[in-house]
């Protein structure tokens, strides 16, 4: 075996003896074994370090990286996110108000928002919401600190301390989240199959008409028929109110048609004027979510009272007419409700007829 070596510009040939060949092979084998051991050891160390880092990551609340620009240099700051949630109480309108409030307040205070499984059951079948759902094990494991909320935004809510907050109450007011309107509307984007069903219904009631202006009408009755006058000293939308509200749109839009949803459809069919054939009622078998989708896809809204009608107007985004001044001045309802926080400033209020309530009050005093 020959090996060519270049020395001082000359070429010479060195003959390698067989004994030296064995020595070289042994050295090569030893080198390979040593390199293999080093590589395996290094990989093992890296893997253990990565596993430990992952364990530490799961052990503590995740953090968010925030860019802080200073003198054109980007600095990174780790901010603990913690876990914030909110009670899941009431029906669809309440659940939406609680979700939107949690979304806004958690973001405002720099924490991660999670919703309870019961809220996810209400909202996820309808909307493309993005907030993660809190696992049952964490609900019981974490040491929560409660924080009750009014139904309107207060200065104290801009700086709520605590990494594990459980917000409570029935918040729905636009004052919590209207500065994030575009984000809230994205959170309450209906699933595509619901949009398709809704558009099919609107095409059906349009018939051969062209250039239709759709007006969604929500009439809240149900338990409010009894609760409002007897407990809250208030009234609900009546025939006179609905006639005024519908006439407003009839006078403004030549081809307006009305899509009516209600938890009291029989009352609506008896009391809503349909002499012009421009009123259509949602299907009797519709779920609340289907009714809300119809209202939200209309151009404008007529609501009476309640959070369901409020969200119909907020999602639709056009003109909204609401029942104004529906409680007596001494109503206990005003301790938990503010008109200016409940309805957007640009919405149109029609004062309620409180005479039945006033007459019943005078009659009770006389007796």
Characterize the structure shown.
- This protein is an alpha/beta fold and 367 residues long.
- The chain starts with a strand and ends with a helix.
- Strand 11, helix 11 (307-316) and strand 12 form a beta-alpha-beta unit.
- Helix content is 43%, strand content 19%.
- The chain is globular and about 60 Å long.
- The longest helix has 42 residues, at 18-59.
- It has a 6-stranded parallel beta sheet with strand order 10-9-8-11-12-13, with helices on both faces.
Major β-sheet annotation: 6 strands, parallel
Characterize the quaternary organization of these chains: single chain
Task: Identify the overall geometry.
Answer: globular
User: Count of helical segments?
Assistant: 13
Order of helices and strands: EEHEEEHHHEEHHEHHEHEHEHEHEH
Number of strands: 13
State which percent range the strand residues make up: 15-25%
For the record, give the distance between the C-alpha atoms at the N and C termini, rounded to a whole number: 128 Å
Question: What value does the Rg take, in angstroms?
Answer: 34 Å
Strands ordered across the widest β-sheet: 10-9-8-11-12-13
Which segments are poorly predicted (pLDDT under 50) over 5 or more consecutive residues?
A: 1-30, 32-80
Overall mean confidence score, pLDDT: 83
Structural class: alpha/beta
Helix content: 40-55%
